[in-house]
Amino acid sequence: MEVRSIYKYARISPFKVREVTREIQGLPVSAALDILAFTPKKAAFLINKTLKSAIANAENNLNLKVDGLVVKEAVVGEGPTFKRMMTRARGSGARILKRTSHIRIVLTDEKPEKKQATAEKSEEKSTAAAEKKPKKTKKTAKAAKK
Q1: Among 28, 38, 131, 144, which residue's CB has the most CB atoms within a 10 Å radius?
Q2: d(CA 21, CA 35)
Q3: 1 falls in which pLDDT band (50, 70, 90)?
Q4: pLDDT tens digits, residue range 10-69?
Q5: Domains of the chain, earliest start first
Q6: How large is the C-alpha radius of gyration of the chain?
Q7: In what order do the strands lie in the sheet with 70-78?
Q8: What's the count of helices (H) and strands (E) in the chain, helices before strands?
Q9: Which of 25, 21, 3, 4 minimizes the C-alpha distance to 13?
Q10: Which of 81, 73, 95, 63 lies closest to 26 in space, CA to CA?
Q11: Is the pTM of this model over 0.85?
């Protein structure tokens, strides 16, 4: 079962929030909460709030146990941007962009299988690379003629 929670119009740049969301993706909920508690950033507080909301949704709406939940996705989208003006020298003005974010967290009670799939792909690549024969270049072709 998947459970999600969305924090819309968060007053922080998506670039700053993505830095923290990358850290919690694929982790169990308890580990993700620990990481967020000890991350000294505003984004960590906002993500923590969203994660707790997703946990509450799982407990109350779907009767899932918190112990088995894993962060499947932690996605940050760009929200609307507030445009402001700041006066500059000689009567000119400069634009200030105040960016907003949409933070979406998806929890699941299923165990992630991504690590197994990526391990299989890397094994296939290594065997395919070993089977390939080296290409002949001009230097090796001239050396073969002599």
Answers
A1: 28
A2: 10
A3: confident
A4: 999 999 999 999 999 999 999 999 999 999 999 999 999 999 999 999 999 988 989 889
A5: 2-112 (3.90.470.10)
A6: 24
A7: 2-10, 101-108, 70-78
A8: 5, 5
A9: 21
A10: 73
A11: no
